[in-house]
Amino acid sequence: MSGKLTRPLRQEIDSLGRADVMAGEFTRRETLRISAGAAVGTGVSGWTGLASASVAESRPLTHADDVEIERLASLIIETDVDRVVDVVVGELERGLSRQHFLAANFIAGIRFQGHHYAYVAHPVNVVSNAIPAKSSLLPMFCHLEALKTSRGSERLRAIDKSKIPSIGIAEESFQVAMRENDSDTASLAFLALAREYGPQRAYDRLWIYGAGRNHRSGGHTAISVINTFRTLRAIDWRCPETVLQFAVEDSAVGRALGSDLYIVNQDRAACVAQLPPAWISSKSRRESVLDLLNLYRDSRPADACQKTFDLLQRGEVEAGTVWDALFLTTAEMTARYIWVGSKMLAGHSITCTNAMHFVYRTVHDPVTRLYALLEAVEWTTSFLDRERTRPALRKRSIIDVAPAKLTVDDKTPDRIFSIIPIRRRRHFSPVLLPEADRAHELAFAWAQQNTDHTPFIQEALRLVCLKSTTEVHDFKFPLALFENYRHASPEWKPHLLAASVYVLHGTQIEDSPIVKQARERLKLG
């Protein structure tokens, strides 16, 4: 891929001032500029004379509530675990809003506890919005309990904001620093861009890194970029510079496990004009979905990416077919685990695919959309390949699962949730698998017979609230799966819904202690 600009620099810079500029205009340029070994686009330094804001003129991004949010975040971390519910309820009684509570937990996770505690804020917010209003604070207490599992020290790196560069060199500085994995310089340059163009438009430069730098075992770079963005929107852009610095630090992490496949996928994405216009269609073809599912089950990542691209190029499949196959592959991986407890890469394949799909449906640039789709193929098959070699997977298909026979008493999902076995992160015994499989078969039968799946999802979210442990994946995995379910074609929704039992808590496990305490203090019964 070329690192050269695709249109005159002056025209590019003029376009930045247009109110109707789309996210993809930035993203495509960054796709071209960050390809491996390519120099930053020639002429970028020309920004200096055209937008010469100095360090002194750079205005920090602030929100009127930032100081209060930071105070609450520190209070949450510093308060002893046996007093934290009383302290937070006291703040609620003095007028603390649900949004401020979410923001304080989010910032506490970023500043003091680390990655997972920040990523989980998005699914926590989704659950909070989906359950009855009077219980909507309870997911925040689940998040709070996870934060209190250990005393956090300041984890966010200290950077000297007096060294934020002028906007004239910020673009080039950011791209070079990201290539060299220099998180401090990248953060400073990114803040300059955010101060000039606003945080939402600055984020457009991160999508490509989120898609391609999943070097950690669970695809956490994609999850980080996407979930911090979604949470930042949910808290109305409070404490933006703290969040933006965290997102950049999480993305300046080098290439993916020594693999160059992400570079090959960038080259493929640059050829998007060679694909038929209909490639981007949401159309899904049953036989093609099943063919891709078989391909992803058995192929190495390089072959899976190449064959997917070839099928798109020949017009034999559309993007909707590929996404359906990816949703099924990742959900099936959780069903194939040889134990009931931790789902490890299977669960992370769901959240990573969910993050890639968010990029795909959010940006407008076809290069970035194709890149996100191909990277979803790479990471899904990489996770599956690694789990096969451990080995941690058994033979089980969520397509061929035999639905259980429902009795008169099975009109509601209650029985399904009553037989889901107790699942804990470090529980590696296969003894309870038959119970989990029975719940799967009942759930599939119920989902086939009921076109409205709302009762199942509502009960699942209620139990996520009441039963979640201090393991943050109790929220992350099912919420990503349910979102994938929402975007899947109708034919595959019963299969995805039924597979969720492998990442959900049922009624057998005890209620969360902190949620019980919060319910009593909030008089929720």
Q: Find the count of extended strands (DSSP E, 2+ residues).
A: 0
Give the helix proportion (percent range).
55-70%
Rg, Å, rounded: 23 Å
Along the chain, the helix and strand elements come as HHHHHHHHHHHHHHHHHHHHHHHHHHH
**Total DSSP helices:** 27
Low-confidence runs: 1-56
Question: Looking at the structure, what is the overall shape?
Answer: globular
**DSSP strand content:** under 5%
Number of structurally distinct domains: 3
- Structural class by SSE content: mainly alpha
Biggest sheet character:
none
State the separation between the terminal residues, measured CA to CA: 61 Å
Query: What's the rounded overall pLDDT mean?
Result: 85
Structure description:
With 525 residues, this protein is mostly helical. The protein folds into three domains: 13-256, no CATH class; 261-389, no CATH class; 408-514. It contains 27 helices and no strands. The longest helix is centred in the C-terminal third of the chain and has 24 residues, at 366-389. The radius of gyration is 23 Å and the shape is globular.
Q: Which structural traits does this protein have?
A:
mainly alpha; 27 helices; 0% strand; disordered N terminus
Put the structure in a nutshell:
With 525 residues, the protein is mainly α. 60% of the residues lie in helices and 0% in strands. It folds into 3 domains: 13-256, no CATH class; 261-389, no CATH class; 408-514.
